[in-house]
């Protein structure tokens, strides 16, 4: 088949080989994967920031709660200042953590880092599960620390 009819047949056969139908599906798959990765980064990253802030907030409140346990006998005796019953610090931190509706393993992992008659330092642990989980496999643990002092005046 030579001539114009043979050329037309070869071009038609060649065109069928180079057909680009379906190439948009490949691009759609790639962009879908990129969109999912970006969404996972935004959602899970936002949740990580939120949980760290929540842990710090609960730690601040737990430290204040522990520091409010004042030794009233020493206060009334006029020993100067308002001494904290620092021996009760761990118990009060756990009590506050329970009242904050934290999970039991997180309550058990929250404690007083240091305590004295003048100040308490508290560490709170929170565990959460990422929504999409592309960047973190399994639960993620965050911690917050705070200090509260007994001040009079």
Briefly summarize what is shown.
The chain is an alpha+beta fold and 153 residues long. The chain has helices at residues 4-17, 23-67, 72-77, 89-99, 104-109; strands at residues 111-115, 119-128, 140-149.
Keywords:
single chain, 153 residues, alpha+beta, three-stranded antiparallel β-sheet, 5 helices, 54% helix
What is the element layout, followed by pairings?
Layout: H1 4-17, H2 23-67, H3 72-77, H4 89-99, H5 104-109, E1 111-115, E2 119-128, E3 140-149
Structure description:
It is built from five helices and three strands, in the order αααααβββ. It has a three-stranded antiparallel β-sheet. It is an alpha+beta fold. The N and C termini lie far apart (108 Å).
Report the sheet-strand fraction. 15-25%
Radius of gyration, whole Å: 32 Å
> Which strand order spans the largest sheet, edge to edge or round the barrel?
1-2-3
Instruction: Specify the overall morphology.
Output: rod-shaped
Which structural class matches the secondary elements? alpha+beta
How far do the termini sit from each other? 108 Å
Helix content: 40-55%
Order of helices and strands: HHHHHEEE
Task: Please describe the biggest sheet, giving its number of strands, its sense, and whether it closes into a barrel.
Answer: 3 strands, antiparallel
Q: What is the strand tally?
A: 3
Average pLDDT score:
86
Number of helices: 5
